[in-house]
Structures are given as structure tokens and as C-alpha cells.
Amino acid sequence: MSTTTAPAILESAPPSSPRWHRLKLRAGYFLATSLVVAVALYGFDYYLLDSTQRPFSPKHLILKPNGELGLWLGIFGALVFLGIFLYPIRKRSAWLRSRGNTRHWLDFHVLMGLTAPFIIAFHASFKFGGLAGVAFWIMTAVAVSGVVGRYLYAQIPRSLNTAELSLQEARDEQARLTEQLGRQQLFSASSLAPRFRLPSEEKVRSEPLLFALGSMMLLDFLRFLHIARLRVRVLGFWSRLGTLGGILPSGNAEVERVFAMARRQAGLSKRILFLSRTHQVFHYWHVIHRPFSYSFALLALIHITVAILFGIR
To answer: Whole-prediction pTM value?
Structure first.
């Protein structure tokens, strides 16, 4: 039995470490998911009712927009969405920039952006009419575009301190990983190369931007499948079952080390190939994402002001 204590675990993962960040991020997603699931289970029968039947439900006084729980969900959802603006504010604040890692801030920015629409939907009891309805769908567009933005951010090669690598630095890293991969004995280069083949530079340059984005996502998905198939090839029957057919990591450290190198090398090669297109899509993404964010903030402020002055029906 392990004698590792909680303080020892915390000591081994200082607040700025990637491991500590992953723990906090997972805790955030767990809490957000738990809240959404709990409210959904409690109000499931109420949310299925027609608006004419809801006033007769014993849960109406609790779950309606100005109900005992509905009102607090609205307040909490608004606060969560306002928290999203800490990330862009950080770019303009020297004090905030000195606090934490840009990538870590972005991860929580995405978490709040994904959580807020669910909370606001429960606050509105899934009735999206009038100004509040427009605000909700704008917020949903912000959340969806935020996920795309986070994906695009990950496509730009960066160092551990999140500084963007130059093209030459990225290629040097690519060459280093290729050399390391060539030294491993588990798979031959001829068996790995076809599985991670990339399109030509000419094809990538000629693709429309949306097609280029789709190609990046497809290559990421195919890389995941290729790794799963390779894992199945080298594992025994029981290990295959334990990894759900190669989907989950195995307990074999050497196998997983090789797969980590292959994943990193293939992913970096893809990012280098699509780098110019990624920057283009990122530019247009900013044009869409920011106005939606500010529009929702304005509409939410109007909704809250009207609710305070005239009450929520």
C-alpha cells in the first residue's frame, strides 16, 4: 500500500506545473459536468413540459427563470461568461500576464465558454424567445467558434513556455523526432511512414480555407486510428481488451514511448505543412469570434437590466 500523502502529491506538482494544471482543468470539467447533469436529471420531467403546463408543475417555482434555482443559474451563467473576458483582458494587463501560462489561461477560457451555454439554457428553461433567445444563440456561436479557435491555437508549433516557434525551429524539432523514431526497434520506418503520410504542399496551398481546416481535423483523427491499429499489432489478446482495441494507452512503457514519439513527429509535420493556412484561418476566426463575444455581452447586459427593472416572467 502506497504511503504517499496528499501534501506530498501537491509538493510534487507545483502550481505552475503542467501536471498541476491538468489536475485543475480536469476538476473544472468534472464540476461543470456534474452541475449540468444534476440539474438535467432533477428538471428532466419539467423541461419536457409545454410552457402552458409548466405552471402546474411542483418544480415550476424552482426552475422557472426567476425561480429559486433558475435565478441563481442565470447569475452563475452570467458570471461564468464574464470570466471568459479575463483571457483577452490578460493580453493587455502586465499584472495578469505575469500570472500563469497563456496556454493554461486559454484552457480555462474554453472551459468557461463551453459551460456557460448549458447553464444559461437551464436558466431559460430551454425557452429561447425574444432578446434573451438571440443572446443565447450568439453565446452558442461564441462557444462553438471558441472550440475551433482552441484547435487552431494548438496547430501552431510552440515551445514549452508557449512562445511560438519559428519555422526553422519547428523543422529542427521535426528532424530530431524523426531521428529518435528511426533509432527505435519496435517498428520499421517503412511500416510507420505510410500510416502518417501527408498531402503535398501544392494540394494544401490550393485548398479553400474551410477544406484546409477539415483536412487538418481529418488527419488528426486518422493519426488516432493509426496509433490504435499499431497498438493492437504489438499487444497480446488480453492487453488488446484492456486498451479497448488499441484506443486506450497500454501498460507497456516502451510501446507507449514509441507511440508518443510517432504522434508528436506526425503531428508536428502536419502543423508545419499547414502553418500558413492555419494563420489565415486564425485571422478570419478572430473577425468572427470577437464581435460575437461583445454582442452577447451587450445583449446579456440589456437582458439583466430589463430583468432587474421589470422582473423576469
So the answer is: 0.75
